[in-house]
Amino acid sequence: MRRVTWILAIVMSAALLLAGCGKKDAGSVVKDLDHVIGKLESYQGTGRMVLQTGQEPQEYQVEVWYQQPHYYRISLTNEKKDITQVVLRNDDGVFVLTPHLHKSFRFQSDWPENQGQVYLFQSLAQSILLDTERQFTKEGNSFVFDVAANYANSGQMARQKIWLDQKSLAPQKVEVSDSSSNVLVKLDFTQFEFGKKLEKDSFDMQRNMTSWDLKSLDKDAPVSGAATEPSAGAASLDGKAPAAGKAAAGKDTPASAQAGAAGKDAAAGTPASGASAGAAADGGKAPATSPGKAAAADGSAKAPAAATGSGGAAADAGKTPAASGASAGGAASASGTGDKQPAPAAAGTAATGAAGADNKAAANSSAGFGLIEPSYMPKGVAQQDIRDVKLGENTGIMVRYQGTYNYTLLEAAPQTQTVSVLPGDIVDLGYTLGVVTGDEKKTLTWTYEGIEFRLATADLPHDELVKIAQSVAEEAGK
């Protein structure tokens, strides 16, 4: 009898041991994840990312490629605006590309090692491995980790939940929340493949700039759109020729669209481009120099485009052309004759001293586009003045703010060249990507609606810098 009891005990122990072998706990999953990272050679993933960091949610289609040892390509497409930006890392450095504007920004950085990204497998895996207080559960065919969010350029992001496939440990979904558990970023991967074979020239800057069909960089596929001469209007993202009324090349291109030789930018301290800026703003919808709407006969236009010469291209994709000789701060009369009128002050902006309507109208006229002012100002800050600045032969608008914090905002037509500057970091503004450069004096540079913005400061905290930049899109969209 005693012998039978011992046999039953051994059998039950073995059964329990075998049953336990089929279950994964947090420790064993973390060990497997560390092994995957150790042998990682390449991957390709696609997904849908929604950002809730501004007043309105921003949605991107995301495509990410990685090739050992340090090649990255991330494509972020805003389908609503039909705009794609690409982040590249290759042997030449780190690039932020805006192909439809022929604009590339090259800077020195250890990205992404110094700055985690929600769409990169390495960032997600490291956040799981490093958080000793990680929380672990299982949902269906997924392992779910709740860990600290370590994103250098966002103090709002506190925690993140990461769903991994139980078989391959490939990421399935990510949700990043603030300290109040409000979801700020949600990313759903629709496809993710480890060991994807990628060609080295898939990470080449020039190839990505001239391949307009950014959904596929197949080496044997014909390029759907080629780079034009700098002064020519850019093709749209699908490679089609610009329609009538959109930015066009030739003698009818406004003279103000031509950017002069490089010069030092007083606000940002960055070299200005020497190439001409003829690329169409916002995917070919409006000339790069005229992102504002055309002046209406009744004077109701919010940000009239400058009229430069009798052959100026129509603003806003073929709508009413600006009258010849009309001031950008005033509306065109019904007969087509420009009647100079002061531009209205932007809502919510403290117009003090020289920063009045006449000053704004003059700046708009000289720069060739309507001034876009941020809708957000930190407490205790007031606008001081608006002035023209020369960037080589081109003209931009600089707005100065003073008070609790001091900063300047420079707006200019985008330059068609690669800009190499100081070491910097990529900042996701929700509606576009920006680059922060400098140490004691920081400059945040980004492009939106065909205009390049440079926000320079010596004392603005990073979160305030981002809020101001984000409010530019909110004001431009009105």
Structure description:
This protein has about 475 residues and is of the alpha+beta class. The protein is globular, with a radius of gyration of 26 Å. β9 (about 160-165) and β10 (about 170-175) form a beta hairpin. It is built from six helices and 21 strands. It has a twelve-stranded mixed beta sheet with strand order 7-8-9-10-11-1-2-3-4-5-6-17. Mean pLDDT is about 70; it is low at about 215-355.
Give a quick summary of the entry.
By secondary structure, the protein is of the alpha+beta class.
- The string of secondary-structure elements, in order, is HHEEEEEEHEEEEEHEEHEEEEEEEEH
Structural class: alpha+beta
Average pLDDT reading: 72
Oligomer: single chain
Number of helices: 6
Largest sheet: 12 strands, mixed
Strand order of the largest sheet: 7-8-9-10-11-1-2-3-4-5-6-17
Shape: globular
Jot down its keywords.
478 residues; alpha+beta; twelve-stranded mixed beta sheet; 6 helices; 16% helix
SSE blueprint:
Elements: H1 2-21, H2 26-38, E1 42-51, E2 58-67, E3 71-78, E4 83-90, E5 93-98, E6 103-107, H3 121-130, E7 135-139, E8 142-148, E9 159-165, E10 171-177, E11 183-194, H4 205-210, E12 280-281, E13 286-287, H5 357-367, E14 381-391, E15 394-403, E16 407-412, E17 418-420, E18 424-428, E19 433-437, E20 442-448, E21 451-457, H6 462-476
Parallel strand pairs: 6-17
Antiparallel strand pairs: 1-2, 1-11, 2-3, 3-4, 4-5, 5-6, 7-8, 8-9, 9-10, 10-11, 12-13, 14-15, 15-16, 16-21, 18-19, 19-20, 20-21
Helix pairs in contact: 2-3
